[in-house]
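We were asked to recover a plausible sequence for a given structure. The inputs and outputs are reproduced exactly as logged, with field labels preserved.

PROBLEM: sequence recovery
POSITIONS: 184
GIVEN STRUCTURE:
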């Protein structure tokens, strides 16, 4: 049961750090407002049926399919011929480019490296699916919030340093504990 708690902590910490990462790179490579509105308007639900299908697709199906494909199949296949770091990097390049989002390509690449490390460390794509679902849930909630202004949390331009430090502690501590739990 404790592994579930650590996996949740890892997900929460990861989502906070990914949100800040997105904020940082959005300052360097800002998405044009018209493109942002087009993307977000297509992801906003207008009724409960749309909420259900968008939630199912974005928060459940996409993480399961993408992580099974990229970490479960592609990365594992490349690992059988190359080193784990090479497999993680190659998979991350493919993952980032396949999303067809030039404004998010760096964030997607870094996210994928992290997910590749998690999949390799725990020899499973399940933690990646959960973290990916948590990240997509963050965006799903934010985009479907009527007052959404392009940032997940209304904290000016960055997440408070306290939350960043807490997130780093959660991620590092959770990975250490999950490794110990896995070794048993």
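RECOVERED SEQUENCE:
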């Amino acid at each position: 049961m404790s592994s579930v708690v650590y996996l949740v902590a890892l997900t929460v910490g990861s989502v906070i750090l990914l949100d800040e990462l997105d904020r940082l790179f959005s300052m360097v490579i800002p998405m044009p407002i018209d493109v942002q509105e087009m993307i977000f308007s297509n992801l906003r639900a207008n009724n409960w049926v749309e909420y259900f299908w968008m939630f199912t697709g974005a928060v459940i199906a996409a993480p399961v399919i993408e992580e099974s494909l990229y970490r479960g199949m592609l990365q594992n296949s490349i690992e059988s011929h190359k080193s784990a770091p090479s497999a993680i990097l190659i998979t991350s390049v493919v993952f980032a480019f396949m999303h067809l989002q030039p404004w998010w390509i760096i964030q997607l690449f870094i996210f994928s490296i992290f997910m590749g490390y998690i999949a390799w460390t725990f020899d499973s794509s399940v933690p990646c699916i959960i973290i990916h679902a948590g990240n997509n849930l963050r965006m799903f909630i934010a985009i479907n919030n009527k007052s959404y202004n392009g940032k997940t949390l209304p904290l000016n331009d960055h997440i408070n340093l306290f939350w960043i430090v807490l997130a780093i502690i959660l991620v590092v501590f959770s990975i250490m504990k999950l490794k110990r739990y896995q070794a048993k």
